[in-house]
Amino acid sequence: MDAMQRARTPGPQHAYLARQTGRWAVTIKVWVEPGGEPAVSDGVAERSMILGGRVMEERLSGELHGIPYESIGMIGFDNVIGQWWTTTTDNMGTGVFFMPGELDPETGSGRFEGLGSVAALGSQIPMRNEVRVEGETQMIELILPGPGSGGVKVMELSYRRT
């Protein structure tokens, strides 16, 4: 019973997420080809804590290439295994991205890696999110495998609290 209580009790990681809740203006950049100019649009993200303060949910709406864009993401910390995780699903597909990773609340930086479905390839491929939090601004970069060790940035979300 003690282990179950520890597993279900929100801790400092969950308190960190709670500080990220609220309304955010988002600049969305998408690159169709490496080194090319990104398509840029604006969006809005609403973040709230759900499940009794255990998970932060984000509902983002905006536009990608002139098409309305919606995504629902969650981020949490698993007390049992001591690991951060994130999920995202959107109206550009029917799959879900699941990425376990690391997030350091002290520095505001994190890295999440997993698999995601890519329609153009008709399969799942490895991808990662690089996260940087600096006060009232945040950045999330979606990076796919590519030439060199760094990969290819295909999406960038820049957040500013409103």
- The chain-level structural class is mainly beta
Estimated radius of gyration: 16 Å
User: How many extended strands?
Assistant: 10
Judging from the principal axes of the Cα atoms, what is the shape? globular
Lateral strand order in the biggest sheet? 1-2-3-4-5-6-7-8-9-10
Number of domains: 1
Calculate the terminal CA-CA distance, rounded to whole Å: 42 Å
Oligomer: single chain
* Main sheet overview: 10 strands, antiparallel, barrel
Write down the overall mean pLDDT: 93
Quickly give the CATH architecture.
Answer: Beta Barrel
CATH classification, class level: Mainly Beta
Order of helices and strands: HHEEEEEEEEEE
Helical percentage: under 10%
Low-confidence stretches: none
The percent range for strand residues is over 45%
Q: What's the CATH H-level superfamily name?
A: Calycin beta-barrel core domain
Fill in the CATH topology. Lipocalin
Given the structure, what is the number of helices? 2
Spell out the blueprint of helices and strands.
Elements: H1 2-8, H2 12-18, E1 22-30, E2 39-50, E3 55-64, E4 67-78, E5 83-90, E6 97-104, E7 109-118, E8 123-134, E9 137-144, E10 152-161
Antiparallel strand pairs: 1-2, 1-10, 2-3, 3-4, 4-5, 5-6, 6-7, 7-8, 8-9, 9-10
Describe this structure in words.
The protein starts with a helix and ends with a strand. The chain has 2 helices and 10 strands; from the N terminus they run H-H-E-E-E-E-E-E-E-E-E-E. Strands 1-2-3-4-5-6-7-8-9-10 form a 10-stranded antiparallel β-barrel. The chain has one domain: Beta Barrel (Lipocalin), CATH 2.40.128.20. It is mainly beta and 162 residues long. The model has no long low-confidence stretch (mean pLDDT 93).
